[in-house]
Design a protein that fits this description.
This protein is mainly beta. It is built from six helices and 15 strands. A hairpin with a 2-residue loop joins strand 7 (about 210-225) and strand 8. The N and C termini lie far apart (about 115 Å). Mean pLDDT is about 85; it is low at about 1-60 and about 60-65.
Length: about 350
Amino acid sequence: MSGALLAASLVYLPALQASAQTAPEPAAPDPAAAAPSAGEPTAEAPPVDAPAATEPAADPAAASPPADRPRPPPYSLPFQLRPVVAVSVVRSDTAVAFYSAPRASSSGSTVASTLLFSYKVTEDLAPLVRLGVVSNSPPAGDSGFGFMNPVVGATYALKLSPELRLGLFLGLTVPVGSGGGDEPSPEMGPTRTAGIHARSAMDNAMFAVNDLTVFPGVGLAYVAHGFTAQVEATVLQLMRVRGEDAQPDASKTNFTAGLHLGYFIVPMLSIGAELRHQRWISTPVAVQNDASRATRETTTVAFGPRGHFKLGETMWLRPAIAFAMGLDDPMRASEHKILQIDVPFAF
């Protein structure tokens, strides 16, 4: 029996091997039949409306359009103090002063006008150039007209917090103004003095035509809820470079400070008020010769409205008109009344 089984195995074994070699490979599964029906999530495939596991969640801030971002609070631009922001601007600023003189039957007038060019090279830094002219028609004597010293400088603005802004400034005058030198024209002395008063004694460096003046300054502003409160301080170091025969002071030191308060009534209109003060830290010969010592320091006040008009995506026109007057002598004694017209165009 075992011999018969062995013989049968030897007969059929080659046939089984040949059949295994020629057997067809199993067919690939049908994709259509294997795929789950729509709407039937499986452990291997999430539902169609589920986010892919490998894709990061979208950032809501990045998805929001720029227009939805909160706008910075409006800043009340000062009338004569320096801004604490770096901007590209062309600014025309004209002060017209009316005053009287002792024993004069008529009044005099002075026009002191400046033109400023500033360009923002970074978000924080804006170099500037400022030019100016002054004319004076006194109650008695000759009228005068001349150019002020040009100013070159830069503003560096820092945002300390959403409400606090710090502005650092460094300026330098070029002593090429009219009426300087050893033989100045006689009418330019009174013209420059009248111009200093018309500018509330805040731009003395531009009228010191014989002096090279370096003046660093700092301003700090609180801006929130449509309200602006800004303080400013500047030290001016004047150094004589010409006119030794006509000007005895080889150097002088001056100080100016100011406070600005502004409030937006509506987005297009704000009102503002300023308190300005200047004082000679050193004692120039002119102050020594003044028995009343009224020329050592000057305090003025100004107030008025300012418009805010958006002309394009980044262009603004912010015209203002302000009334100023002196609170102490010599401007109070001469009954100075000043009208300032300020037209900045920012771009």
